[in-house]
Design brief:
There is one protein chain. By secondary structure, the protein is mainly α. The protein has one domain. The chain is about 85% helix and about 0% strand. It contains three helices and no strands. The longest helix is centred in the C-terminal third of the chain and has 41 residues, at about 50-90. The radius of gyration is 19 Å and the shape is elongated. It starts with 6 loop residues before the first helix and ends with a helix.
Length: about 90
């Protein structure tokens, strides 16, 4: 594989890891999804010769990361509601 083809996924991964320090979980997961999608798209683009795959992969990855984050937040809210319901039931006894 040509070394030039590896540059895009390596840079995307480095940016994803370096830029996550002050971000919310939604921003981190969206960026991580975009970075992973870009890497996969770049790999497909390297094989097919069409670099539009990297852009499409980034968009799909970002959307996937955002949707994943929303699901995780929903699960966390449900968990917290269950904990509160359990606490209130034990206090009534």
């Amino acid at each position: 594989m040509n070394k030039k083809l590896l540059v895009v996924p390596v840079i995307a991964g480095a940016l994803a890891l370096a830029g996550c320090a002050g971000m919310s979980s939604t921003e981190q997961r969206t960026l991580s999804g975009a970075a992973i999608g870009t890497g996969v798209g770049a790999a497909v683009g390297a094989v097919t010769g069409d670099w539009g795959w990297a852009l499409g992969g980034a968009a799909i990855g970002a959307a996937g990361g955002y949707i994943y984050d929303q699901q995780k937040q929903k699960e966390q809210r449900a968990y917290e509601q269950g904990v509160q319901a359990g606490k209130s039931q034990t206090q009534k006894k």
